[in-house]
Structures are given as C-alpha cells and as structure tokens.
Write a structure and sequence with these properties.
Chain lengths: 298, 298
C-alpha cells in the first residue's frame, strides 16, 4: 500500500456537530486545511438552515474560501434542491446520503430508505446533466443507533441500486461509531467494488484506527477524517465523533503509507480548530504530539 | 483466536499516574474489578514511598482487598527489596521492569539498563527460591520519549538475556504511547517467543486498539489494559495513557474472542474509577456505551 487518499471533513461534518461558529472562522479553517497538502476537503453542506443552522452560511463560506489548486472540494446535499445550490456555487463533486436503516433515514431525512433511493436516482441524473459527479454515502452501514446491527447484505443491495442508477462513488458511514474490525471485514466482503469506495469512521468507541487498519488490509485506500476529531456524537454527549485526521496520518506515515499531507501543518490546523470551537478536541496526536517529538532528557 | 487473557492494571499502573487516592478507594476498585470475570490483576507495586507516594499504602491495600478465587494477582517491584516485600505480602507473581533505552532506565531507575539487568538476574533467583515467578517488563519497547525509536534488536537482546537468567514471562511496555502497528510487527518479528509474551499498550496517539489487532494477528493473546483508561501520560499533560479495558473487551467480544469478562460489570468498575479519581476518563465505551446499547427511536 503506497498511497491513501484522505478526505478532510472537519469543515462540514465536524463543524455541523459543534456549536455554530462564524463564517470567517470556517473560512480560516478551510484555508488552513487547504495548505496542509490534503487533496480532498468536504467543504460545506447545502441544507435547510432550519434543519442545520451550523451550515446556513454555506454560500458565504464557500465564496470566501481559497480554492487551492490540487485540492478537490466537495459539498454534501440532502436532496436535489441542495444539489442545485451546490452546483450553482461551483461545486462539481456532490455527496448525498441515505441510511441503510429505515429508522435512521426517517429521523435524518423524514422519509423511508426506499423513498430516499428514488430521490437519489433523480438527483444523480440532474447532477450528471450539469457535469458533476455524485458520491452516495450509505449512513449507518456498520450499525444503527436505533435498530442495532445492520445486515451487510442490506447495505450491498443499496450499493447495487445506486450504482445501477449511476452513482460515481460510494462511501460507507460509521454514523455513530458502531464500526469494529469485524463489521468492516463483513461489510467489505459483500459490497460491490465496481466504483471507488471510501470509508468514514468515527472513533466513538476507540476502534477508529483499528477499523482503518482492517480496511487497508482489505484493499481500501480512501478514508474520511476530521481535523482534531472535530464533531461529536449526537447520541452520546461528550463522546468522540469522527476519527482525527492527524491520528490517521500519523499512523499511516509511520507505516510508510503516503498521504501527501504535512503532519506539522495539519497539527497547526488542529490547533486552529480547537481555538475556533473553544474546546479541547479528542485527538491524541494533537495532545501528545507525534511519536517522533522527543522530550528533553535533562 | 478463541481466547485472550487480559491483565487489568488500573489499580497499579493506572492509579500510580493519577493524584493519590485513599487506600479504601483502592480496595473498592480492586474488589469491583475482581467481580468482573477478569482473570489477572496487577494489584499494587512495592516501591519506595518517596519515589511513588501513590503506592505507599500497598501493604494496607493488599491486606484489605478480597482475593477472588480464579484471579491471578501480581505486584510490580523496582528491585529485590521490593520483591521481598511483595513475597512477604503473599504475592507469587512478581513483575520487574527494565527499559530498553538507557536514558529512560536512568530516569526511571537511576541506573543503566545493563546494571538493571544484573539486578534482575539476582532478583529472579531470589524470587524463584521463594517459590514465586518473575515477569520482566521491557519498558520503552516501542520507542523512548528521550531517545526516539528503539531498535527491536536491542529489545530482543534484552529478552534473550532475561530468559537466560530464568525469567518466567516477558512483557513489552509501550511506556509513552509510541507503539504503532508497524512497530508492533517489527518487534514481534525479532523477539524470542520461548516464554509467554504480554503486550502493554497505551492509547496516547489513538493506536491502542490497532496495535492490539496487529498483535492478535501475529499470535499474541495476552494484553494489559486499564479500567476506564485510568492513568495519564507523564510527558504530555492531558493525554491518554493505558488503553481502556472496556474498549479492548468491547472490540474483542465483537470479534468473537472470549476474555471471561462481563462488560457490564467492567463498565460499573469504570464508573467507580471515575468517581474515585474525580475526573472524566478517556474511555469511549464508558462514555458512549457499547455498540449494542440502542437509542429509543421516538
């Protein structure tokens, strides 16, 4: 394994699960991340401001952010209306989400999984006509906080459907940190690999890097991660959310896996993220420094 | 892999790196842990009270603690004097530590690694004559906070020496959380497996469970873990120390690996540990609950 592609999701997924912060801080964070060498950033989401007030200023943030050459920026949308806004703002990489578990889909999107899949089919067509690409994120792929275990075959069926409908990429979301090495192995054993696959892990129960290690061994090379571990778990106050980008990069670089990311620049961005949200973030590498940072002996 | 043996080190390694707590609380924690089904507990250390005031009451704690049938209790000692105290208190499983890196050994034990190895040779003989067994813990096996990377061949040489001197078991200490899957693989590739091997990981940089997963795949089945993740990192204020027992058990049980431990009882002990030290411990499974704990949908 020579190369892993990390998508930084702190500006969107991270900040969406924190108390709202000013647009100017979001721009500063995006710009700091764009300077780290990371090649993909999930920048904003275009959602209804009543549903997610943290992202109400997506247009303003994106207009002000530096678009670094060599960085692919993507936007998450809940539906075709959001996709149109994202396309109008200049995004060509669109992400849309559907939950593998019906209960979670209803909670999140107020419709059944089957209804969301119908919507996504139309959305893919519309985005393709506008020259964009669509990644379908299958949330609760490793378990649902309401329903418990999710049968990997159910996830596989959803993947087959969205690929048949033209999805360009598929991501599997560990929405509330229920993924474990066992669940990763089971899921990757049954889902189609006809399109690129990206895995999105949380570190809610400490398994984040173990899951990534398992997926690496199974040939996966695209992962989401969030600067500093930004973003909590909405179902468990005080619990960690997304796996921290610097922890992922730290482990990968030690293994000789390249990411293109400068860990020092990443740690500066993590410190900025902490200042922006005003709380200590859960990243261990941010707290303790990389293993190569030595202590004076005297 | 059907079975893993976890040694709970919270009462010793954990509490030694926290502010001092009363002997009665230590006894309560030991007794709670003895009821979890865990089969091994590192109970106390017999060290000079000026060096480690947290363990000054080891005799009192051990005398008052319930000795559960089916649980193997061990004591850590820095030298032969400590070993004699441990044997006199009724321990038969003695642990002694030496650092693979000279700088850390001098900081920790005020002598060179070579001098410690001489002392350990004599200690092993003395403990064996008294009917006990000795585990030699090789600290800084995965890196030294002062010297950086530690050559695995240096660790292997130390292991060969202590096995030649009669050590009954060997443990490898990830003293400041510098272990990574790569370092685990490299070390296990060169050290002797003539005696039982135990691995002691920290989660300082998020790699705790990834390291355990790597070691499992390489045939290791004995691990240290600390209730709640008790015990910090002395070199990085606020950073995590030992990997949390409930996170290890949670991942292993999900994989179908048996530990003999009741996770619910373990979480009760973790809550007790939090009350005793009066701070939020870093365990994700303690914070968020096991992945099997569902949220009401309505």
């Amino acid at each position: 394994m020579a190369n892993v592609s990390i998508r930084e999701v702190g500006p969107r997924d991270g900040l969406q699960n924190e108390d709202p912060v000013p647009a100017s801080d979001k721009v500063r964070l995006l710009d700091a991340l764009s300077r780290t060498g990371v090649r993909r950033i999930e920048a904003v989401s275009f959602v209804h401001p009543r549903a997610i007030p943290q992202m109400a200023d997506a247009d303003e943030v994106w207009a002000a952010a530096t678009k670094a050459p060599g960085v692919r920026y993507s936007a998450l949308v809940p539906n075709s209306r959001g996709a149109r806004r994202a396309l109008a703002a200049g995004f060509t990489e669109i992400e849309v989400v559907v939950s593998a578990s019906d209960t979670h889909n209803r909670k999140n999107l107020n419709r059944s999984t089957a209804e969301s899949l119908e919507d996504i089919s139309a959305l893919i067509d519309e985005v393709h006509r506008a020259g964009g690409t669509v990644e379908v994120i299958v949330a609760t792929s490793f378990g649902c906080p309401y329903e418990g275990d999710v049968d990997p075959r159910r996830v596989a069926t959803i993947v087959d459907r969205v690929l048949a409908d033209g999805a360009d990429r598929v991501a599997f979301g560990d929405t509330t940190g229920m993924a474990t090495p066992r669940r990763v192995t089971e899921l990757l054993g049954v889902v189609s690999r006809k399109a690129p696959i990206l895995l999105h892990f949380h570190n809610t129960r400490g398994t984040g890097l173990a899951n990534i290690l398992t997926a690496l061994e199974l040939g996966i090379s695209e992962f989401d991660a969030s600067i500093g571990g930004l973003g909590g778990c909405p179902y468990a106050p005080g619990a960690s959310g997304n796996v921290a980008t610097e922890e992922v990069v730290h482990m990968l670089h030690d293994m000789g896996v390249e990411t293109g990311i400068d860990l020092d620049a990443l740690l500066e961005a993590a410190e900025l993220a902490e200042r922006i949200v005003g709380r200590t973030l859960p990243s261990g590498v941010l707290r303790a420094g990389p293993r190569t940072r030595l202590v004076a002996a005297s």
